[in-house]
Amino acid sequence: MRSVLVAMALIASVGPMALNGKVQPRIVADSRGLPGVRSTFVVHESEKQPQISADRRRLSCAVSAFICGNLRLSLLLQLPMQNLRLPLQVQVQNPRPPVVVASKPFGESYILSEMFAQILEARGLTVTRRRGLGATEIAFGAIKSGAADVYPEYTGTGLLAILGDQPMTDAAAVFARVARETHARFGARWLPPLGFENTYAMAVRRGMADSMRLSTLSDLARVAPRLRAGFTPDFVGRADGLPGLTQAYALHLRAVHSLLPAIKYQALVKGEVDVIDGYSTDGLIARYDLVVLRDDRHFFPPYEAAALVSGKLERDEPAAIAALTELSGRLDVARMRALNKRVEVDGEDIARVAADALRDLGLVGGVQPATARQRASDVSLGSYLYRQRGTVLSLTARHLLLVAISLIAAIVVAVPLGLALERTRRSAESIIRVVGLLQTIPSIALLAFMIPLLGIGIVPALVALFLYSLYPIVRNTYTGVRDADTGAVDAAQALGMTPLQLLRDVRLPLAAPVIMAGIRTAAVIDVGTATLAAFIGAGGLGDPIVAGLALNDTRMILSGAIPAALLALAVDGGLALVERAVHPGGVSPAR
Amino acid sequence: MIALDDVSIALAPGECVALIGESGSGKTTLLRSFNRMVDPDDGRVLLDGADTRRLDPVMLRRRVGYVPQDGGLMPHWRIRRNVELVPRLRGMADSNARANEALRLAGLDPDRFAERWPRELSGGQRQRAAIARALAARPTVLLLDEPFGALDAITRGDLRLSFRDLRRELPITTVLVTHDLGEAIELADRIAVMRAGRIEQVATAADLVAHPATEYCANLLRRSGVGRG
């Protein structure tokens, strides 16, 4: 009870408050999502919607997850963070929640997602962008739980990855089945397809295709034992990916490397691998003059792109459904490929590409702005970073906040746990090993597990970071206290210290440097792991990294990676000072 | 396993008894049963006629001085804070003055040593500080567990001399664990020879040398070069 009161007092003192449940939080057009070069995401010239609060970032941080236990009743503490560029701000109260538009972490998904967002805004709806959600499990998990309202998905993925059904070949039949089953099982709705297919495209270098006379996947199977493949982890794992392909074509490759989408094309062009899994609409296939092998046995199911919307949106916002449906049947392969090329190859701003596409389709009005297109790669890295300083600063602040909250929570839990384990040494090692096991859960998997419980955004990210921070702190607290100068501890006890005095005045001070070292390790791991928070929409410096990887934009990646590395160094250095400060005076020379 | 078996020994007020024996003979276990760092399964330890098992171990320990072989100083406290430990635990208002007096008794000048860290002292100085810490609250009993065992021969000699002077000034009932018969003869009023958890003989140094009760005692004397053989 007292802790709840403390939380209330804390919130009252900070100001804006939201109850995660009945009362809706204040509505803020969120400018997060894709930071970086393409910084014009939020401010669209054509929109009548006021942008007053657009740059006001709010970091909702759940102090409650650990305090209240009941997440539905959890109090969200909103910390306003001023954006440096817009000092004058007015808050807008909106009675309706924003439509949360999500995407998966690759270029086409970003573009389609941005088109969804812009057409919703053009029809007068408020939008929050949560792009680059880690994988199908996370993106669809967000739709299922209502944490996101819409994202672009492909019917083949819906059939195989979401429903777990057997492959089918007829596009109309696939859509019908997927639409029916997804609604029946998960309450989510597929809107009519956008008009193009984006299936897997097994791509090889033209030179190799010519010399080995490859044009179909059957041809590929013939020479496969001599070839090395570079496939995305997703493709390697899913039934409609490598396992199915291996069966359908008796395809036995010499080696299969797991490659991220962003680097597989470069690996192929450089000759590191011989075949990759592209998407048929990828702009890079044309750029690198690759040959796509024909699926002559019709193994891959149809992958028609469509908007996948949450049951909540369908129920509450018919206007949003109507706006999104305007796009159905309007995009053909050629147009999509051209849009992908502008973003992935030419490095154009996604917001502009999406706006152009909507205008060309006659869905929004306005004329093309005359400003020159400038590729991000045309400026030096330094001036690029300088131009992005505001974004980078606020992302860094958010990153630091993620790390700080999760680390403090981990200290509060792990230090007492380490002390308790020291008292019951027999079970200590096995319990510490269980905590260590948490460390081995892949972060994407951990984040995916948490969506049904915690949705997407900052809360699951904090919980994941918290769990990853526990082990080094528990381990070091336990060993630090256990191994603290045994002679001194024995003498202190023999001279009449109570167990509490012994702990507080002798064992903890002597163990402090070891405990601090554990905290330091956890903090540095946290700074790195927090970049993965972007996969679940929590923001931070992972945002430009994920977006840059999806868009093949090195500068954007570096605008997140460099500050993250510097932050890790700074955090480590700062904690080293703390470590020195807590070092017991007489133990070792304090320099 | 039984560490001590059928051991009975009584100390007169102000007396110093040395427990001597090989490693594993039970002398340290016996010593630690006096301040209840070890509790016997069976048997009693009486302090001024009171059964120590009826006393709160923490309160008992604050009345019993203790010096381990390695000194056991708190490395994160300066010497003064170390020596003030027991007076502070007992809530004595004059802990500072008591620390100064104890340091002087142990042969350390408070002005020179009180503000130093333990690591800044030599091994002998650290043991003096540990003795000062054990004495600062004027305990009823002083327990010493091979207090000079880790020191070089010259330092050990110095400390033995100081300790004899100290005991003359401050006759506290003392139990001294040692494996050095010469040290026992020099410092103790009586010597208890221990072997495999039992006491072989308790006698004054002179009696022990003149009439070793068992073959083991005679051998011990011979090996130490004190006996007649």
Describe the protein in words.
- The complex is a heterodimer of chains A (591) and B (229).
- By secondary structure, chain A is of the alpha/beta class.
- Chain A is 54% helix and 10% strand.
- Chain A has helices at 2-14, 64-67, 107-122, 136-145, 155-162, 171-186, 206-212, 217-223, 233-237, 242-249, 261-269, 283-287, 311-316, 318-325, 333-345, 350-360, 381-387, 389-423, 425-440, 443-454, 458-483, 486-494, 499-529, 542-551, 554-582, and strands spanning 17-19, 57-62, 75-81, 99-102, 127-130, 150-154, 189-190, 200-205, 228-231, 255-258, 275-279, 290-292, 305-309.
- Chain A has a five-stranded mixed beta sheet. In chain A, strands 1-3-2 form a three-stranded antiparallel beta sheet.
- In chain A, helix 3 links the parallel strand 4 and strand 5 (127-130).
- In chain A, helix 5 crosses helix 6.
- Chain A is globular and about 85 Å long.
- The model of chain A is unreliable at 1-92 (pLDDT under 50).
- Chain B is an alpha/beta fold and 229 residues long.
- In chain B, strands 4-5-6-1-7-8 form a six-stranded mixed beta sheet, with helices on both faces. In chain B, strands 2-3 form a two-stranded antiparallel sheet.
- Chain B is globular, with a radius of gyration of 18 Å.
- The model of chain B has no long low-confidence stretch (mean pLDDT 90).
- The chains are: A alpha/beta (591), B alpha/beta (229).
- Chains A and B meet through helix 22 and helix 23 of A and helix 2, helix 4 and helix 7 of B.
